[in-house]
């Protein structure tokens, strides 16, 4: 089997049910071979208006011979392994893995397929995605319908109290032995 072209993806993982750190650790372990960088773990107030417990979130940069669909389906497998159920939109979950953006040979992949919208259409409004992303890639940019924007500029455009609520709380355990 020949490997496909290398793609680079930004993934966001979140959890607010059960052992939040353990759930996020499964994501970093699964992507150990493709991992370019992973942020610290951030405690984040729930986004989206549903009254629920705070989340823990991380953002990962991964690179490997995977199509955008493959990054999504690996994330879905991890959600299933965490016994993720879909009850309330933007509601509580053991584990959520979102594909924020994918690039191939330096070109951003655009998709309006509802099964995989790229870049993620709500990423620019989410401090819980952008703040950890800027930590691991301060020069990062995000394609939006209004143009390509530095992630730091998108953060500056959010409500200050929303950004201030996104607070680093832990490092995930190292995934590789030396
Ligand atoms: N970029 C993307 N990343 C992850 N899932 C996506 C993406 N684009 C579309 N989807 C689709 O969204 C569906 C619902 O995902 P999910 O239940 O995680 O939504 P949500 O986390 O509640 O809301 P949001 O999409 O706003 O993060 C998934 O089945 C998936 O096919
Ligand atoms: N802080 C935070 N809020 C959320 C999150 C998340 O990961 N973090 N995921 C959601 C599911 O769409 C809805 N709201």
From TrEMBL:
<keyword id="KW-0289">Folate biosynthesis</keyword>
<keyword id="KW-0067">ATP-binding</keyword>
<protein>
    <recommendedName>
        <fullName>2-amino-4-hydroxy-6-hydroxymethyldihydropteridine diphosphokinase</fullName>
        <ecNumber>2.7.6.3</ecNumber>
    </recommendedName>
</protein>
<comment type="pathway">
    <text>Cofactor biosynthesis; tetrahydrofolate biosynthesis; 2-amino-4-hydroxy-6-hydroxymethyl-7,8-dihydropteridine diphosphate from 7,8-dihydroneopterin triphosphate: step 4/4.</text>
</comment>
<dbReference type="GO" id="GO:0003848">
    <property type="term" value="F:2-amino-4-hydroxy-6-hydroxymethyldihydropteridine diphosphokinase activity"/>
</dbReference>
<feature type="domain" description="7,8-dihydro-6-hydroxymethylpterin-pyrophosphokinase">
    <location>
        <begin position="89"/>
        <end position="100"/>
    </location>
</feature>
<dbReference type="Pfam" id="PF01288">
    <property type="entry name" value="HPPK"/>
</dbReference>
<dbReference type="InterPro" id="IPR000550">
    <property type="entry name" value="Hppk"/>
</dbReference>
<keyword id="KW-0418">Kinase</keyword>
<dbReference type="GO" id="GO:0046656">
    <property type="term" value="P:folic acid biosynthetic process"/>
</dbReference>
<keyword id="KW-0547">Nucleotide-binding</keyword>
<keyword id="KW-0808">Transferase</keyword>
<dbReference type="InterPro" id="IPR035907">
    <property type="entry name" value="Hppk_sf"/>
</dbReference>
<dbReference type="GO" id="GO:0016301">
    <property type="term" value="F:kinase activity"/>
</dbReference>
<dbReference type="GO" id="GO:0005524">
    <property type="term" value="F:ATP binding"/>
</dbReference>
<dbReference type="GO" id="GO:0046654">
    <property type="term" value="P:tetrahydrofolate biosynthetic process"/>
</dbReference>
């Amino acid at each position: 089997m020949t490997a496909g072209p290398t793609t680079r993806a930004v993934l966001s993982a979140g959890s607010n049910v059960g052992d939040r750190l353990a759930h996020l650790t499964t994501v970093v372990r699964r992507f150990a071979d493709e991992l370019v960088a992973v942020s610290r773990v951030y405690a984040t107030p729930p986004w989206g208006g549903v009254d629920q417990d705070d989340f823990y979130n991380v953002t990962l940069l991964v690179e490997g011979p995977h199509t955008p669909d493959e990054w999504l389906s690996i994330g879905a497998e991890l959600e299933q392994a965490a016994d993720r159920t879909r009850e309330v939109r933007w509601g509580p979950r053991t584990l959520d893995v979102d594909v924020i953006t994918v690039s191939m040979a330096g070109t951003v992949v655009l998709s309006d397929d509802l099964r995989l919208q790229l870049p993620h259409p709500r990423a620019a409004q989410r401090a819980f995605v952008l703040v950890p992303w800027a930590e691991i890639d301060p020069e990062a940019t995000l394609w939006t319908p209004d143009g390509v924007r530095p992630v730091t500029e998108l953060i500056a455009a959010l409500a200050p109290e929303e950004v201030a609520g996104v607070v680093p709380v832990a490092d995930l355990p190292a995934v590789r032995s030396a």
